[in-house]
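User: Structure please.
Assistant: Input sequence and predicted structure:
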Amino acid sequence: MPEESLQGRVVVITGASSGIGEATARAASAAGASVALLARRADRLRDITADLEGKGGGRVIAVAADVTDEHSLTRAAKQVSEELGRCDALVNNAGQMLLSRFEASKVDEWRRMIEINLVGALLATDAFLPALRDGGGDIVNISSVAGRKARPTSSVYSATKWAIGGWSEAVRQELIADRVRVTLVEPGAVRTELAEHISDDSIRETTRAMYDTTDALHPDDIAGAVVYAISQPPRVSINEILIRPTLQEY
């Protein structure tokens, strides 16, 4: 892949304050893109932005935004347009993985995952879609292997990821004439802070142990797949990428 494979493009990434989002921002910037980092943690975004600005890649801006708030995203889209130009690629990465047994009735956690993992991707795409349709571009939805394989404790999390898969395919077909490509990325176990937010102590420890036994992926592994997809020639659409650790069975 050429070092400057995204030269001149504007890439917007949600959930960019850590994990896969941060790694994707770093990879896209290194590939020459101008990058907008969107997340709620403004202080963390400022630190990442300051670091990237000193590395000689594309322009980088921090945009405090909440993917569950359409007005926040409308403001974010306006800021990106004014400061960087037309959005060429949107990476819907913001998400939470609040695993629990369904019988635990953690309704607030169900709602949070649905709002962030599913509704957040819809709202972010709605905010940036006019720019993407004005010249073509990419929508990359970070899903999960849990969108293919449901397991005990992942019922609601899997539901959000299965929904993202169905929506991605439908919107891909809708946007073909606009030359907007849609890519679904489905990571297996990745070492990020997602597991640390699991409120059930036993499930959190089991998840951590699984990361160790499978030699879990690093965020950079997923970031490389995203950059690969969006750096393809316009005639090439990478619709789906499933990435598991070599030792992960399911």
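The domain at 10-243 is CATH 3.40.50.720 (Rossmann fold).
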